[in-house]
């Protein structure tokens, strides 16, 4: 085989390896047909139900339809299967959109990617997964992006705090895992975190450990400052902390026999200086802080394939929500980060502005409605006050009339009395 043929084969192989592959994509564009592709777990009988909806506000009524949680305080367990593959030697990209239009107080917005041997009808919180990725919110203290990998049967959380979006709008979440053991997390197609799998997760034991044989020498002096040996306590230093009040006087009515011997009350001694300590000086024998020597960890073994999963075949929504209303959409699993970015721009990117405009319009309408209702309540309250005042005035007028009548009756009685006396 000639050198030219070998070069051609090498270039062909490189093209094959660089070819974009979409392993899974779901945009819910065919109505209720999604139910044939997604399966609800039967591990529990009271899982919350997903419904197809674009929500209360959106950029496109059809394109923005996704799976929405519909029942409060429920676990949800739904998954979809695709052709099994391994990400060996290529990037793994997991991407989807999340919209917490209900102003979520506590609940998950993440996805799980499972090996193909998952029994979907039995999926639950302890089912073994390859990775878990996405936002999780619970109160003001938890607003993070989870990035959890399963490595040798144990789930490992990222060591960094990656903050998620906590507003009511749709956001695009992207995880990229590269075959050189690096990773990148993007929100709305912008990088928010990156690094290496070995540095940012505790997959492997540390490369270095403290030498168990090393000990700090007994004559090692790590005191930076020491008491001055030449410093002496002044002769007049020691004073009592409390002394009798010199201005106090025995009360005139004090009776020693009845009250006992009078003693003046104690007060803080203004001349008291506290415990004497010699001043400190630099330690001439100071050798610095002793640093424990390190050695290579015999338990450490490098692994160039931390990133790799031999089987990837199911994506699932396995989460809990207190307040429902979250919408999941635009799922994508591919080996091409550039393609994922283009898909994100073509889906979330094209509807985000219209979504915000619709939400702002709804907020403005609600604001006006509240103002009208407040004005109506104020007017009704004012009418009620005026009616009460009118009733009070009428009542006062009635009382005055009664008083006048009573006075007239009394006068009549007064005039009739003499006549009765004469008769």
Automatic annotation (TrEMBL):
Q: Where is this region: Disordered?
A: 197-260, 334-423
- Bias kind Acidic residues: ranges: 382-416
- Where, in this chain's numbering, is an alpha-D-glucoside bound? 110, 112, 129, 136, 318
Q: Which gene encodes it?
A: CRT
Q: Which family does it belong to?
A: Belongs to the calreticulin family.
Q: Which GO terms describe its cellular component?
A: cell surface; cortical granule; cytosol; endoplasmic reticulum membrane; sarcoplasmic reticulum lumen
What InterPro entries does this protein's entry cite? Calret/calnex, Calret/calnex_CS, Calreticulin, Calreticulin/calnexin_P_dom_sf, ConA-like_dom_sf
GO annotation (BP), single: ERAD pathway
Q: Which UniProt keywords apply?
A: Acetylation, Calcium, Chaperone, Cytoplasm, Cytoplasmic vesicle, Disulfide bond, Endoplasmic reticulum, Extracellular matrix, Lectin, Metal-binding, Repeat, Sarcoplasmic reticulum, Secreted, Signal, Zinc
Where is the sequence biased in composition, kind Basic and acidic residues? Answer: 208-253, 347-381
Question: Where is the protein found, in the record's own terms?
Answer: Cell surface; Cytoplasm, Cytosol; Cytoplasmic vesicle, Secretory vesicle, Cortical granule; Endoplasmic reticulum lumen
Q: What is this protein called?
A: Calreticulin
Q: Does the keyword Cell membrane apply?
A: no
Where, in this chain's numbering, is Ca(2+) bound?
Answer: 27, 63, 65, 329
What Gene Ontology molecular-function terms does this entry list? calcium ion binding; carbohydrate binding; unfolded protein binding
């Amino acid at each position: 085989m000639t050198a030219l043929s070998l070069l051609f084969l090498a270039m062909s192989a490189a093209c094959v390896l660089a070819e974009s592959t979409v392993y899974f994509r779901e945009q819910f564009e065919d109505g209720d047909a999604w139910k044939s592709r997604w399966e609800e777990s039967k591990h529990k009988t009271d899982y919350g139900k997903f419904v197809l909806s674009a929500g209360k506000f959106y950029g496109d009524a059809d394109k923005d339809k996704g799976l929405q949680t519909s029942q409060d305080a429920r676990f949800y367990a739904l998954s979809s299967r695709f052709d099994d593959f391994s990400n060996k030697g290529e990037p793994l990209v997991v991407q989807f959109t999340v919209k917490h239009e209900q102003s979520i107080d506590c609940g998950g917005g993440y996805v799980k990617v499972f090996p193909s041997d998952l029994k979907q009808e039995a999926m639950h919180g302890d089912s073994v997964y390859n990775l878990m990725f996405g936002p999780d919110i619970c109160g003001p203290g938890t607003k993070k992006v989870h990035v959890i990998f399963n490595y040798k049967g144990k789930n490992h959380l990222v060591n960094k705090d990656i903050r998620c979006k906590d507003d009511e709008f749709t956001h695009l979440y992207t995880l990229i895992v590269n075959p050189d053991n690096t990773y990148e997390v993007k929100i709305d197609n912008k990088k928010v975190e990156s690094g290496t799998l070995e540095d940012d997760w505790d997959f492997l034991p540390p490369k270095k450990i403290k030498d168990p044989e090393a000990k700090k020498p007994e004559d090692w002096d790590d005191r930076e400052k020491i008491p001055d040996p030449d410093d002496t306590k002044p002769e007049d230093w020691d004073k009592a902390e409390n002394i009798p009040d010199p201005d106090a006087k025995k009360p005139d009515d004090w009776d020693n026999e009845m009250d006992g011997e009078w003693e003046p009350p104690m007060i803080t001694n203004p001349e008291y200086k506290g415990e004497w300590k010699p001043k400190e000086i630099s330690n001439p024998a100071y050798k610095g802080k002793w640093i424990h020597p390190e050695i290579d960890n015999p338990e450490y073994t490098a692994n160039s394939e931390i990133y790799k999963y031999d089987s990837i075949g199911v994506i699932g929504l396995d989460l809990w929500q207190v307040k429902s209303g979250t919408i999941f959409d635009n799922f994508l699993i591919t080996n091409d980060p550039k393609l994922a970015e283009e898909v994100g721009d073509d889906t979330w990117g094209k509807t985000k502005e219209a979504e915000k405009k619709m939400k702002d319009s709804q907020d403005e309408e609600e604001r006006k409605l509240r103002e009208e209702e407040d004005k109506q309540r104020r007017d009704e309250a004012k009418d009620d006050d005026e009616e009460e005042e009118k009733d009070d005035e009428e009542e006062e007028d009635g009382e005055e009339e009664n008083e006048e009548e009573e006075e007239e009756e009394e006068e009549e009685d007064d005039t009739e009395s003499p006549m009765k006396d004469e008769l």
